[in-house]
Amino acid sequence: MGVHLAANWPDLMEKDLRKVYIDNYAGLPAMVPDLFNVQSTMDGYEKISSASPVPDHVEFAGKVSVVQRYQGYDKTATFTEYAAQIQVQRKLAADDANRTVNRFPKGLAESAKRSREKLGANVFNLAFTYEPTDGDGAELCASDHPSTVPNVTAQNNEGALSMSAANIETVRQNMLDFTDLGGETITVEPDTLICYKDNEETGYEIINSKGKVETADNNVNFHYGKYKLIVWNRLTTSNWFVVDYDRMKDYLVWWNREPIQFMQDSDSDTHIAKYLSYYRCGTSWDDWPWIYGLQP
Predict the structure, then answer these.
(1) Domain of residue 168, CATH code
(2) Number of domains making up the chain
(3) Cβ neighbours of residue 199 closer than 8 Å, sequence gap 6 or more
(4) 3 state DSSP class of 75
(5) Is the pLDDT of residue 119 over 50?
(6) Residue 278 is part of which domain span?
(7) Contact, 230 vs 31, CB < 8 A?
């Protein structure tokens, strides 16, 4: 049942314990506020739509040509409930000689914070495999992002390159070729690298070395100061991403439907105290041309 019983915690009944430590280790820093556009909502879901741009003008030949826009893809953000509880036997709480049990419920706050960070990291960890049922139906990083406009070629924003100076430039060039729904080239500013700690040293050297990386040439390093490096230890090993930070902060959304709440209840029949926490949230991305994912 998961109830904290006195019989299972004999050490806490001993008065001669010098110290009982829990949660002495700091957790990973919060990254969701830095990467996501954090929004609050009072609705059961949020729906976002898009439209293609107006096509080019055509030569006037006695009659003004009609140009057509097309509706884009709809995205719907839904919000999942998350909850946890700690149950403590009254006898354990009463006989706890070191007052350790009183600190047990505080762990719910750290658990909620950690769980929300993992939810945010999953957007990147599942970027190559999760196919949503809305939007364009492709993964966040995919080789087949379609368009609703006829005769527009599908686009690619995934690859298998390892992190290196040459490969970063390859990805940057690919991102500069991104187009909108109508096939028109758009302005993308690849300015941020996101990776797991195994690529931190490589990324740091690439963007901070003044000379050309990994060569004896006296060339200026093209990448020097060009990128911001974000290291997130909740990401999948070896995977890395090049992103347009401003577009990411616009299109990658964290929805807070109900904030973290803490409650206390008790069962008079069993003398079990219940400490509960609850929140409701969701993640979504409005569009994908802010990111290029690499899965070596």
Answers:
(1) 3.90.1690
(2) 1
(3) 163, 231, 238, 240
(4) strand
(5) yes
(6) 3-54+69-291
(7) yes
Could you give the percent of the chain with pLDDT greater than 90? Answer: 72
The verdict on residue 64 lying in a domain is no
Name 18's Cβ contacts closer than 8 Å, sequence gap at least 6: none
Dihedral-angle region of residue 183 (phi above 0 means left; psi in -120 to 50 means alpha; beta otherwise):
left
3-class SS of residue 267: strand
Retrieve residue 136's tokens: 């364009």
Instruction: Tell me the two tokens of residue 216.
Output: 């004896």
**Model pLDDT for residues 277-290, shown as the tens digit of each residue:** 999 999 999 999 99
Give the C-alpha separation, 12 to 14, whole Å. Answer: 6
Asked if 196 contacts 235 with a C-beta cutoff of 8 angstroms, the reply is yes
247 within domain boundaries:
yes
Residues 235-262 pLDDT 10s: 988 999 999 999 999 999 999 999 999 9
Contact 248, 34 (CB under 8 A): no
Instruction: Examine residue 59 and state whether it is found in any structural domain, yes or no.
Output: no
DSSP 3-state assignment of 275?
strand
> pTM of the predicted model, to two decimals?
0.88
How many whole angstroms separate alpha carbon 294 and alpha carbon 141?
9
